[in-house]
Design goal:
mainly alpha, globular, 287 residues, 12 helices
């Protein structure tokens, strides 16, 4: 049953990506991040109030670093979705475990295993294949944004790891991240010219970005709470599969064979790194 929760979370995250790609025709990436954070803050705030959960924290600084890194990563990720195939953007964002592993080695000082070295090598070969020079310039820029979202996400996850070690509950971490995203995206909303009015279609897309994101996080939390952490982390990569199907069906996206091979290498390497001891405490902090 726990595995089904993670499959549901992956499907919902892919649905959020679809709403982002469709919504980008009407709104900027910053605006989409604002609405993603705003809707999530309202929903999670209602849950917090209903259950009487305390929001006070002694680790505001770490929450701020997590929120800043997560916000910048989310903007880059949403922007990348608008420029390159959905599956490619999702896959590049999911390179975060590779960069997290590097951070744990060079920043935290954890000792890497031979299996980790092999996984990292395979993953970065996959990145090269996905970002192959034959891509159009606009696609290459989108690919670099997607990769940047993965790099910066690793910093966010490292701070999530610290918060977990400090005893912070995951719901509080997600709430403050959502609030940070809403506040960070507010300037885009206020300074957009012309102002992007919300009609019925736009409203549904914005609601989808927020609701699918929150629902995915809740399903993911259930998966990690009720099942094996490493199994859940591995199944999270099914988001790539769902995104690939959506991309083909909705936009007729068909990356070249080399890119598909790169996607497979990145997914395999990401799954391998989540099964290393150094990464176990950092998984489960989805954007």
């Amino acid at each position: 049953m726990a595995s089904l929760w993670m499959i549901a979370a992956s499907f919902l995250f892919a649905c959020m990506g679809v709403c982002v790609k469709l919504g980008a025709e009407r709104f900027s990436a910053g605006e989409l991040v604002f609405y993603r954070g705003f809707v999530a803050t309202v929903i999670l705030g209602a849950i917090v109030a209903w259950r009487g959960l305390p929001l006070a924290t002694r680790h505001a600084g770490t929450h701020c670093w997590r929120g800043l890194a997560g916000f910048v990563s989310l903007v880059a990720y949403f922007y990348a979705i608008t420029l390159i195939p959905l599956a490619t953007a999702v896959t590049l964002n999911y390179t975060s475990p590779l960069f997290l592993a590097l951070l744990l080695v060079f920043w935290v000082g954890e000792r890497p295993s031979a299996r980790l070295y092999a996984a990292l090598a395979a993953g970065f070969v996959g990145v090269v294949l996905v970002l192959q020079p034959t891509m159009e310039r606009q696609q290459l820029f989108g690919g670099m944004l997607g990769l940047a979202s993965g790099v910066i996400s690793s910093v966010a996850y490292l701070n999530v790891r610290k918060l977990g070690a400090m005893g912070e509950p995951e719901w509080r971490t997600v709430f403050y991240f959502s609030l940070f995203s809403a506040v960070g995206g507010l300037p885009w909303l206020l300074l957009s010219h012309p102002f992007h009015a919300i009609d019925i279609t736009g409203g549904l897309l914005l609601a989808g970005v927020g609701v699918f994101g929150v629902a995915a996080q809740l399903c993911m939390t259930a998966a990690y709470t009720r099942g094996r952490t490493l199994t859940a982390a591995s199944l999270a990569y099914s988001t790539v599969a769902f995104s690939s199907v959506f991309g083909v069906v909705l936009w007729r996206e068909s990356p070249p064979l080399a890119a598909w091979l790169g996607i497979a290498l990145i997914v395999g390497a990401g799954v391998a790194t989540t099964w290393t001891p150094s990464a176990r405490n950092a998984v489960g902090a989805e954007l």
